[in-house]
Design brief:
- The protein is of the alpha/beta class.
- The protein has twelve helices and nine strands.
- It has two domains: 200 residues, Vaccinia Virus protein VP39 (Rossmann fold, 3-Layer(aba) Sandwich); 68 residues, Helicase, Ruva Protein, domain 3, CATH 1.10.8.100.
- Helix content is 40%, strand content 17%.
- The strands form two sheets. The protein has a seven-stranded mixed beta sheet, sandwiched between helices. A two-stranded antiparallel ribbon has the order 1-8.
- The N and C termini lie far apart (48 Å).
Length: 286
């Protein structure tokens, strides 16, 4: 689908690419096929796609997968795609906001391996990526187009400027692999940033116990709430129960210097600290 064809599709239905929805539509059919290859989509797979757009990636997925369930928040696009019959028969199109959708229920209703693929609107990348982590037990993997800046954060190492809460949480749940880079010319309208396509595979050796991610997340969010603060001050500001005594005991149990900043701690250390806070009575509300 060329740039002019995408414009024609939008014009026919009096639609525009909406900045408030972060819409940058993939327009390169060859790149769409390449993304499907890199995502490892096989004939027996079912795919959940987040962000149908004009259907370029959707059609490439449908050529390979047994079934595609695709969601888009833009009612105008959904109406236009249905009106033109623009999607193959093995595609199920939903008008739905991914951040309010029960993706786990959709995945459980699909047979065979279920994968998620998305040209994710950059405006919702953070909350959507966090939502996908909760699907680690129902998805084989997920492959997502992201702003390169977000990709760098996901792949960062402790101590770097881009290391943060998103890095820690993903490190404990999944293995992240950068598959390729796409230039702005592959999209309409052209974004002002480079894009990275990443694949997330649930860790078989994840150190997390069931239901433990939220507890770790509370500690991590507090630690990175203000990167200038020491870990001690950041966690105190996080309003953990038990007061200074419980917090001090947890840090001592983990051998953590209270003066260190959160960006210096490895993901496994955050997990150890979250568990220690439970044991010292400082984890309230988790």
């Amino acid at each position: 689908m060329s740039r002019s064809e995408v414009r024609g599709f939008l014009d026919r239905h009096s639609l525009l690419a909406r900045k408030d929805l972060g819409q940058n539509f993939l327009i390169d059919d060859r790149q769409a096929t390449r993304l499907v290859d890199l995502a490892g989509i096989a004939s027996g797979d079912c795919v959940i796609e987040v962000g149908t757009g004009t259907g370029v990636l959707t059609r490439a997925l449908a050529l390979r997968a047994g079934r595609v369930v695709t969601l888009d928040v833009d009612a105008g696009l959904v109406r236009a795609l249905r009106y033109e019959g623009a999607l193959p028969a093995n595609v199920e199109l939903h008008h739905s906001d991914v951040l309010r959708s029960d993706l786990a229920a959709i995945a459980r209703d699909l047979p065979g391996p279920v994968r998620l693929v998305s040209n994710l609107p950059y405006s919702i990348s953070g909350p959507a990526l966090r939502q996908f982590l909760d699907l680690h037990d129902v998805l084989a993997d997920w492959s997502v187009m992201l702003q390169r800046e977000v990709a760098e954060r996901l792949l960062a190492s402790p101590g770097s400027k881009t290391y943060g809460s998103l890095t820690v949480l993903h490190s404990l749940v999944v293995c992240v692999d950068r598959l390729c880079e796409l230039s702005p010319r592959c999209f309409f309208p052209e974004p002002q940033v480079q894009s990275s396509f990443l694949r997330f595979v649930p860790r078989a050796d994840s150190p997390l116990d069931p239901g433990e991610l939220k507890r770790v997340e509370r500690v991590v969010r507090a630690a990175f709430g203000n990167r200038r603060k020491t870990l001690w001050n950041a966690l105190r500001a996080g309003a953990f129960s038990g007061g200074d005594e419980a917090l001090r005991a947890a840090l001592e149990r983990c051998g953590i210097d209270p003066r260190v900043r959160g960006e210096r701690l490895a993901p496994e250390t955050f997990l150890e600290l979250a568990r220690a806070l439970v044991e010292t009575g400082g984890a309230g509300g988790t």
